[in-house]
Amino acid sequence: MNMFQAINNALDIALGRDKGALIFGEDVGFGGVFRCTMGLQKKYGKSRVFNTPLCEQGIVGFGIGVAVMGSTAIAEIQFADYIYPAFDQIVVPRGPVKAKGLLLSCIRDPDPCIIFEPKTLYRAAVEEVPIEDYQLPIGRADVLISGNDVTLIGWGTQVHVLREVAQLAQSKFNVSCEVIDLVSILPWDRDTVCKY
User: Fold this and answer.
1) Residue 137 falls within a domain, yes or no?
2) Domain count for the chain
3) Residue 114 region, left (φ>0) first, then alpha (ψ -120 to 50), else beta?
């Protein structure tokens, strides 16, 4: 399953299990600009998966309003450049397994969450993603490679580059690099980062 398929699967699970869940944003009803909501409006109806006007502040405000009224608001903002009015919790998955588990965690978290989906990974990153429902913790980093000389910290797409750098540093310079994926950049896992 690639990352866009994992995201679509997580959204399908969330809508199927939570009758109060709503997905909305620009072109969401048509499948979204990156196709992550493809088929969901047909399956769940126009009252649960729908388009909004081109106004990010309006999308976020609508999400807050429906959440206050008891619904589970899943607001899609197409590009990170327009999200600044809505920061609270931010997660950035490095691949499909993380994308699905973090998206389900964010949807079910009682506080607003933002998940930045690295668009370069939508179809490039492929992993064995569990079909069943699962959640991953928000705010917990992953130590991907243990090392003693230097620590490399990143999130999302950067993590793949850091792994390559760590391998290159080891093979060319005998430098042992630790690689940490922050997973969540707000809140970030100070304990893991400072411990290692």
Assistant:
1) no
2) 2
3) beta
